[in-house]
Amino acid sequence: MRPAPKRSDxxxxxxxxxxxxxxxxxxEAWEGVALFTSLGTDAGSRETLQLRFAPDMRPxxxxxxxxxxxxFPLELLPGAADVQAEQHRP
Length: 90
What we know:
- By secondary structure, the protein is of the alpha+beta class.
- It has one domain: 2-Layer Sandwich (Alpha-Beta Plaits), CATH 3.30.70.
- Helices cover 33% and strands 30% of the residues.
- The protein contains 3 helices and 4 strands; from the N terminus they run βαββαβα.
- It has a 4-stranded antiparallel sheet, with helices on both faces.
- The longest helix has 12 residues, at 58-69.
């Protein structure tokens, strides 16, 4: 058994609030690839999510996101600072 990583990586994405339940269902089906946290909803009813995962799982996470895109539109965001700035925009 390999040791647990000392840090995690993160990706940020945005999708329609109505697609979050399906996103959760699909992510759980990929057993242990990542965890997500909601960072809030914008004025357009789009949810911003933070995905956390072990650094060596990045290729699998990206494969998951490609598969999820076949079910509903989602936008990969550049990073945490950009997400926070955009959420506070009027």
